[in-house]
Amino acid sequence: MPSYTAERIIDAPREVVYGIFADRENGGDFLPVQTRLVTPGDAERQGVGAVHFLGVGKLGVKEQITGLIPNERIEYRLIAGAPVKDHTGTIVFSDAGNGTRVVYTMDSTPSLPVPAAVLRLGLRGLITSMISGVDKEVRRRAK
After folding, report:
1. pTM for the complete prediction?
2. DSSP 3-state assignment of 115?
């Protein structure tokens, strides 16, 4: 299963950074895709079990939140919309001085024959755009 992990320090408290990542429903405000809640979570609107759509128009993927530890960890898996047998994402948050260390990992098993190196490039692009979008949103909110 090809995997890619990126790490970045974002200059904001952990609660702020986690909150922006965890608010998948409003991610379209700062990401290059539209986002919307499809199915609320089991106990919380965007909690475990929640399904979100990420895409453009009707083209996109659905991801389901599979694990949340507030201010520490978000886990999800794709359940529709991508040619993959399995795709999971894990985002881990920790303090880093006055900021937050974000470690974002995606693991993906394609259902089509795709070279691992090509898939890793794609995962890198997805992770980079997510982290960059959150970083820009943090800076926007700080103004």
Report:
1. 0.94
2. coil
